[in-house]
Every structure is written in structure tokens, then in C-alpha cells.
Design goal:
Blueprint: H1 3-13, H2 17-25, H3 31-56, E1 59-67, E2 70-72, E3 79-88, E4 91-93, E5 96-97, E6 101-103, E7 107-116, H4 133-147, H5 151-169
Antiparallel strand pairs: 1-7, 2-6, 3-4, 3-7, 5-6
Helix pairs in contact: 1-2, 1-3, 1-4, 2-3, 3-4, 4-5
Length: 182
């Protein structure tokens, strides 16, 4: 699912049909103002996607890499938050996570880790699937409302965001952390 589709969904939730139509079809009466609204929604999306990945719904990735006993985080294809396990020849092996990388046995290893998503542009694909799109759109609506000073509306969207996250977490032993208002 593209980021643009999630942004259009959030704009529709917020009652901004003009912005949703601009995101879906690229047309509108005041293109400059609509592009500005798209950019605000995009900043909100990047914030929500990062929050989901770090606090609620971790993104995981596994990759094989040749190790000389140490694999620097910069050698991994994504920005890791936490290394979960290292596998060599199909067997989980001990490792030590350091500030600059991971100490592993020598040879080819598979490193499984949680990662932080890169900042997205509107045309990029989301790191999340369509299953998480409702939660993302609700979170974007909440952040957008906060950015515009619509605090009562933000409370409503925050509740919907939390409900969507809770629905995603059902059947799993996960808890939702309390969101702080600054």
C-alpha cells in the first residue's frame, strides 16, 4: 500500500475531500495550498509510522551477511533498533550487541532485527501492510489535528488510533503503552 493512499484515507477521515481528491487524482483548485496540506500530512505519517514501529507494532527484518566476527550496523540494509537473534547454519548462536554493531561468530550469519522505517515520500510504499492502514490513517488524522490546534478532534482520533492498534494486537501478548501529550 502506498503512503499516498494512507494520506488520502486520513484526509477523508478528517473531512478534507479536496485534499483526498488531490492525493488520489492530482487535481485541485489551489494546487500550491493542496501540496502544502499534503506535506503536513506526510510529516504526520512519518511520525506515526516511526511511533508504531518503535512503540506498538515493531517492523522486523532478517538478512544474511558475511561476518568476520563483527557486523557493523551500517552494513545492514535497514536501521536496526534491536537485534533479536543471530542464526548460523540454521542454529541460533550467541551474540553481543554493541553500540557500533554486533559481535557474532565468523562466517555467514543471518541477523534478525527490529528496525526503524526510513522517511517516506508520498509515492513510496509503506513498510506496513494494508492490514495496518486503518491504524496509520487514524494516527495521521490525530497528528494532523494536533498540528492544526484541533485538540478535541485530536482526542477523538487518538482514541480511534488506540482502538485500531488494540485490534491489531488482539490474540497477541502485547500491551499498548500510554501515549504522552506534550
Amino acid at each position: 500500500m502506498t503512503v499516498k493512499e494512507i494520506l488520502a484515507s486520513a484526509a477523508g477521515m478528517l473531512g478534507r475531500a479536496d485534499v483526498a481528491d488531490f492525493l488520489e487524482n492530482g487535481v485541485g483548485s489551489d494546487v500550491k495550498a493542496l501540496e502544502s496540506e499534503r506535506d503536513v500530512l506526510l510529516r504526520c505519517y512519518n511520525s506515526v509510522e516511526r511511533e508504531m514501529a518503535c512503540d506498538y507494532r515493531p517492523l522486523r527484518f532478517t538478512e544474511s551477511i558475511a561476518s568476520n566476527g563483527f557486523v557493523g550496523y551500517s552494513a545492514l540494509s535497514k536501521r536496526p533498533v534491536e537485534v533479536e537473534k543471530v542464526i548460523q547454519s540454521g542454529v541460533q548462536v550467541p551474540f553481543i550487541a554493541c553500540t557500533e554493531g554486533v559481535k557474532t561468530p565468523q562466517g555467514v550469519v543471518e541477523i534478525a532485527y527490529r528496525y526503524v522505517p526510513e522517511r517516506k515520500a508520498a509515492d513510496d510504499e509503506s513498510d506496513y501492510t494494508e492490514r495496518e492502514s486503518r491504524a496509520l490513517a487514524s494516527g495521521v488524522a490525530c497528528e494532523y489535528s494536533l498540528a492544526c490546534g484541533l485538540y478535541e478532534q485530536a482526542l477523538t482520533w487518538d482514541a480511534r488510533y488506540k482502538a485500531a492498534l488494540a485490534a491489531l494486537c488482539r490474540g497477541r501478548s502485547m500491551t499498548l503503552k500510554m501515549r504522552r501529550w506534550i
